[in-house]
Specification:
The chain has eleven helices and eight strands. It has helices at 13-22, 34-42, 54-57, 69-80, 101-115, 129-137, 153-156, 166-182, 194-203, 224-227, 245-261; strands at 26-30, 47-50, 87-91, 119-121, 142-147, 186-190, 208-211, 219-222. The protein is an alpha/beta fold. The termini are far apart. Helix 5 (101-115) packs across helix 6 (129-137) and helix 8 packs parallel to helix 9 (194-203). The protein has two domains: 13-241, Alpha-Beta Barrel (TIM Barrel); 246-272, no CATH class. 41% of the residues lie in helices and 13% in strands. An eight-stranded parallel beta barrel has the order 1-2-3-4-5-6-7-8, surrounded by seven helices.
Length: 272
């Protein structure tokens, strides 16, 4: 059954809750620069995540850990300048919120003031409870992130599916309920069993956004470079590629090189 969509000139945290209540799925993609954000926003994506995945796809690091708060503010500022409709959420990077609630607040305030972002995202549950409370008490919207949390990759030891065992699944449910109670407006569920995603989504009044968590979440998120096929060696089960830009861009650039070498480019019509 098709769901009648409400048109949002500007998506807010309130809009996302309304979408969940109305049964409308939420679309979310990453962006890290002005040009890409302009395209994503014009395509009517609901939420743009300025993810710490920029550490991987923009800077070439193996993990998300090396990216700094200054880097995230730079990327977020670039994105904000392009966006007119989407809600822009920015990851607070590793080491900027986990251990000290006061530092967490300072980090969140810097992101909001210096980039103009609309909300921040943090990874973890009860372990970061005080940091989440401190940020929310300052009036800054917070999106949670549970399941596979890339900032804790060295603790997990791999990028395999999380919460397959009963104990971890129960903790994840408890953490999700805690984040909702604290006041988070949505929660990303990464790489967990689809059945668990469905269970959590039904328990919460706030939206869940899945990346590798199945179709029963209230929305989906992908990294834009993965969706467009720019990261050609990354092949998780949850990824659907909508283009193969790695190959297409490579072919176009190779043709440009050939045209320059053969003096086919520029032609007389392409010069002044």
């Amino acid at each position: 059954m098709s769901i009648a969509k409400k048109e949002y000139k500007r998506v807010t945290v309130k809009s996302l809750v309304e979408m969940k209540q109305n049964g409308e799925k939420i679309s979310m993609l990453t962006a890290y620069d002005y040009s890409m954000a302009l395209i994503v926003d014009t395509a009517n994506v609901d939420v743009i995540l300025v993810g710490d995945s920029a550490s991987n796809v923009m800077a070439g690091h193996e993990t998300t850990l090396p990216i700094t708060l200054d880097h995230m503010i730079y990327h977020a500022s670039s994105v904000i300048r392009a966006v007119k409709r989407a809600l822009v959420v920015v990851d607070i990077p590793f080491g900027s919120y986990q251990s000290d609630p006061k530092e967490a607040l300072r980090s969140a305030i810097r992101i909001m003031k210096e980039s103009g972002a609309h909300a921040v995202k943090v990874e973890g549950g009860i372990e970061i409870k005080e940091s989440v409370k401190r940020i929310l008490n300052a009036g800054i919207p917070v999106m949670g992130h549970l399941g596979l949390t890339p900032q804790a990759i060295y603790k997990f030891g791999s990028y395999s599916v999380r919460a397959k065992e009963k104990e971890e699944a129960e903790k994840l449910i408890e953490d999700a309920l805690l984040l909702e109670k604290l006041g988070c407006f949505a929660i990303v569920l990464e790489k967990i069993p689809a059945e668990l995603t469905k269970k959590i989504s039904e328990k919460l009044s706030i939206p869940t956004i899945s990346i590798g968590g199945g179709r029963d979440a209230d929305g989906q998120v992908l990294v834009i470079h993965d969706l467009l096929g720019m990261t050609h060696e990354f092949n998780p089960r949850f990824l659907r590629r909508y283009m193969n830009l790695y190959e297409d861009m490579g072919n176009a650039i190779s043709q440009y090189v050939k045209d320059v070498k053969s003096m086919d480019f520029p032609s007389k019509e392409e010069q002044y």
